[in-house]
Design goal:
The chain is mainly alpha-helical. It is built from two helices and no strands. Helix 1 runs antiparallel to helix 2.
Length: 60
């Protein structure tokens, strides 16, 4: 498993928490930052999946 997948999942979780805190406190900025962090984490996770797929294809 690629480390980008793990880091991406962590960013997604952190972003979800930040978004929830922003909504709970009424802070649009914090909520928006959380959404952005979730999106970044998702992209990083997808990049990790792609790297894993390439490694698997090369090993065959």
């Amino acid at each position: 498993m690629d480390k980008d997948r793990i880091k991406g999942a962590a960013k997604q979780a952190k972003g979800s928490v930040k978004e929830a805190v922003g909504k709970a406190t009424g802070s649009r900025q914090t909520s928006t930052e959380g959404k952005a962090e979730k999106a970044t984490g998702k992209a990083q996770g997808e990049a990790g999946k792609a790297k894993d797929a390439v490694r698997a294809a090369v090993k065959k």
